[in-house]
Amino acid sequence: MANKRKKISRREFLKLAGLATSSVAAGTLKPFVEKRSAFSQKKKMMDDAGRAKRPWWVREVDKPTVDIDWGNMQRFDARMAARGSGFINYVGQEEFERLNKVAAENEKERLLKNVPGYTLKDQALAAAQANASTQRRFFLGPQNTKTPAERGISIWKGSSDDAARILRVAMRHFGAATIGFVELNEQTRKLIYSYDTDGKEIVFEDVEEAYETDQKRIIPHKAKWVIVYAVQMSTDALKRAPTVIAEQTTILSYSRALDIQNRTQEFLRGLGYQCLGEANVNGLGIAPAFAVMAGLGELARHNRVVTPEFGPMVRIFKMITDLPVTMDKPIDAGIMEFCKTCKKCAETCPASALSLDDEPAWKVQGKWNNPGHKAYFEHSLKCRTYMKEGAGTNCSICFSVCPFAKKNKAWIHNWVKAGISSIPSLDAMLRSLDDAFSYGAQKSPEEWWWLNLPEYGIDTEQTIDQE
Amino acid sequence: MSDDNEYFIIKIARRPWYEKILWAGWLFLEIIFLQSALASQEELEPRAAMIYWLIFGVLLLGGFVFWIVRRSRLL
User: How near does any CA of chain A get to the CA of B55, in Å?
Assistant: First the structure.
């Protein structure tokens, strides 16, 4: 019997032991992997309020990097802005007509001479962007979607985190690049226009529902959350500034923003809440101010917002809702501090409309600026005059030359941004390197027609490395 | 037959520890500049790409020359 007993060698024993251990490990691995991946996915993508994870050098702060004197700030009358019909108020009808005539003559001459960036195909492209949109802007929204009451059910309920998260996800899906929320209080209400761009008064009233008359737009006190969102512009197009190629991406971003606004208004209506939008282009409130308060970016030297993710290559829009959402904080990524040293936008501004001062100031340049914050106020009249007399477009050179106007494909760009945020003493050297690498130089407008562009000309995955 | 004819004496010189760190640094920089050069081409920034390619090439050549020199010294 003892002879029949099978003996196993040491090698076989180790093989069997290894096999048994592997089987046990494999049996326990699956739930572990599932648990681990679900966690890491959530951790990587967003927090409970749906905020995408930002890199360590984008710091959340209690006060924005622009000094604000809320006591001295008043609600701004949007008719005082030097754009659209507001420009006429400053230069007069006669000068306005002269400038328009000059612009038309220049456009014709450039067309006849086939000036790159101003050719017939460029003009046709911009005209198509400007004239094809059939959507209308509504303060109260299109109001086509069934409300929960019309469906015979109660309104959507959730925590403020849940509300912020589903709004962010929906709006990202509608085409917004980044989204933030600001609560309207005594201070931030001052960022809502007193009179809208079309002359209607914007009034806060103790009513249940928002409404609009021929003279005014009424915002209920209960609607106190501002949804601020950025829409990307095409870097490839804007790097052709000040040509028509660059201008058309701005027009496209406004058109996409309108689409996002209408959809978001309908989405919130479907949940049972109100959503008040911009009834006119750039209406409702001061876009860069809300973007700063919502932490989308920092106010920069060119008086627009520069974001950590997309640089200045965004346009900012806003809506107001009565759905309680989790607020966001302003950020400090060293952008405003970098602007103090850089000055590239001001140096390259053909109209000399931007400030070259070392430090921002409280003193405004004219009534087109809203006092109460410390900034590099622009001379909007010089800017607008150049747009008509010189560029023949909305110029945008200040956007295209900005050192933050980079695609984030090269790792080194993100490290430079981290350096800007944490070691301000490097700012002057980094500005010089930006020049040496020729990053701000205008690209060939004709070359644009040979590019294999992504949808809308934007990279929808252009976010900073989140790990 | 003397002992001298029966044996070869081989001396193996060990590379100093800091040389390994230098090579690791060199490799790191090469990867960074190569990535920057390729990414700049993707970003349609020809001048930046050219500068990065140039730095990458010079660094590569420098590494090659250093390796040759060290190799012959060690031999």
Answer: 13
